[in-house]
Amino acid sequence: MQQRLEKEWDLSIDPDTVRLFVLKAKALSAAVNEDYDDGAEHEVEFDGDRHACHHHDGLVEEASENLTEEEFRELINDLNIDEAAELIALAWVGRGDYDASEWADAVAAAKDRPRKRTAKYLLGLPMLADWLEEGLEAIGA
Fold it and tell me: Which Pfam families does the entry link to (predicted)?
């Protein structure tokens, strides 16, 4: 009985790869939260002299944040159909949309989603990192 249960949770996507996505999602979330915390720092203020050249000190930081999102998108786009569906299904299980016992249904529903929008969809999930971690834990991976 134990072998059958382990086989049921056999993933196409390596759990370590999912954990990499968790780290990337946390980094992206932290970058967004920092922008909200000190949002005034990024605003451009004019003091009447509109011809003055404005130097934005945060451009290097912003470029690295965008690079993280770009890297996240590339990693998602590099996944095959099964891996991408399992990543979405893990988020859904972690969020509570599906129970771990409904894993096959979650993966099937994720495969029905448009493949081209996977990265955008996952980036739009506000608690992606937490839900992926909880999904891994729920299926015992």
Answer: DUF3775 (PF12616)
Q: What is the pLDDT of residue 95?
A: 96
pLDDT along the chain (141 residues), means of 10: 46 91 86 47 44 44 59 89 95 95 95 88 92 94 82
* Beta carbons of 24 and 68 less than 8 angstroms apart: yes
pTM, to two decimals: 0.70
Residue 69: is it exposed, middle or buried by C-beta count within 10 angstroms (0-12/13-18/19+)?
middle
Residues 6 or more apart in contact with residue 134 via CB below 8 angstroms: 93, 94, 95
Distances (CA, A) of 72 to 17, 38, 108, 124: 12, 24, 23, 12
Helix, strand, coil % (nearest 5) of the chain? Answer: 70, 0, 30
- At 72, the amino acid letter reads F
Rounded to an integer, what distance in angstroms lies between the CA atom of residue 69 and that of residue 66? Answer: 5
